[in-house]
Amino acid sequence: MRKGTDTRERILQIAEASVLAKGFGATSIDEIIAEAGITKSGFFYHFKDKNELAREMLKRYVATNDQLFDEIFSRGRQLSDDPLQAFLIGLKLLAEVMADLPSGHPGCLIASICYQERLFDREVRDLNARSVEAWNARFTAILEEIAAVHPPREPVDLRDVADMLSCVVDGAIIMAKALNDPRRLERQVLAFRTFVKLIFSDPTRSSIH
Length: 209
What we know:
Number of strands: 0
Strand content: under 5%
Helix content: over 70%
Shape: elongated
Order of helices and strands: HHHHHHHHH
Structural class: mainly alpha
CATH class of the largest domain: Mainly Alpha
CATH topology of the largest domain: Tetracycline Repressor, domain 2
């Protein structure tokens, strides 16, 4: 059973790397099985077709990111009882994670599916949309908790601010690749952190770092 699980994970790893490098349409089952060292029947034992591969690849990608967010922002809450300070700590940790990636962020599978949505069935597209909505809901909830303690200095829709984090990360991944500057993502996350600090920090109170 363990061997089968390892093979399935290996297929998903290879497929994700290929899709992020050159897109879903240019990623063939033949090249995946060649790199994985399995037969075509071995591939279809795990995935009935390419769309099922895409669904499972997306679920794996989302679960990995959810775990990262859980760990990072839980760490922030452990280090501070203040929701704003905790979120700022979490964003700093997120920027550090991005900076530690050896060759920059490999790309966003969510964005890759959006760019080539006609290649996927409705189930994959719907799963993609729900994943984005779940991440935005996660950060909206954090911002609402912050706003209850630190009212925003300017009128702002917290859902838009939550959306902004996804936009910043995906946009920075594209910019980093276009300009061959892997540290661009780290700096953009830190810029978003400064934006959040400016919105919620009370200038009459002690400085929040």
